[in-house]
Amino acid sequence: MEEIVKLESVNTYNKMLGVETLHPLVTVIDLSKAKPMTAQTLNFGLYAIYLKELKCGELRYGRNNYDYQEGTLVFIAPGQVVGVQPSVETIEPKGWGLVFDPELIKGTHLGKHIADYSFFSYDVNEALHLSEKERQLVMDCLGKIEYELQQSIDTNIVKP
Predict the structure, then answer these.
(1) Which of 99, 112, 135, 151 could cysteine-pair with 130, CB 3.0–4.6 Å?
(2) Calpha distance 146→36 (Å, rounded)
(3) Could you report the per-residue pLDDT of 8-59, keeping only the tens digit for each?
């Protein structure tokens, strides 16, 4: 039986990809800079949004197989299991990932309503394909998040 790797923290995820953890609850990753991984099945304890820039094999998402194309957004919610089909030995994806711990949005409006966003559900049978303009908008948002993560932590926060 295949081993399922549990991803419970941003730090664990970053270590798996060989990238530095800049914040314990959120990471933005240029997947072309991550180390290649062996094909495996992952049980996410995190939210993840991936912008794929290259077809890199068929993914097993829940109980279904999907052949995601380039320019596709892939959404994963905590508790979901994702794997690459066994015919692929090494994964070298290209694109970007935004991965965040549910604690990041706990108690926020988004945290209270994230279940309303059906693209985080296994029931989605179609990938979200982006136009070039939409892709640029997503890249701009990821770039801004990455910039913020690279700044030093504000030590002058007033605590109530």
Answers:
(1) 135
(2) 21
(3) 999 999 999 999 999 999 999 998 899 887 778 889 999 999 898 755 555 5
Residue 4 has pLDDT above 90, yes or no: no
Sign of CA dihedral 152, 6, 129, 111: negative
Residue for token digits 């097993």?
60
Alpha-helix residue ranges (DSSP H) falling in 34-131: 109-113
Question: How much is the pTM?
Answer: 0.82
Cβ-contact 72, 131 below 8 angstroms:
no
- CA dist., res. 10 & res. 24, Å (int): 6
Amino acid at 3: E
Tokens 């770039």 locate to 143
Q: Please say whether the dihedral angle defined by the alpha carbons of residues 146, 90, 50 and 71, taken in this order, is positive or negative.
A: positive
Instruction: Give burial (CB, 10 Å; 0-12/13-18/19+) of 133.
Output: exposed
Token code pair at residue 132 = 């070039």
- pLDDT digit string, tens, across residues 144-157: 999 999 987 665 54
Residue labelled with tokens 């693209």:
119
Helix ranges restricted to H, the chain: 10-17, 109-113, 132-150
Contact 102, 111 (CB under 8 A): yes
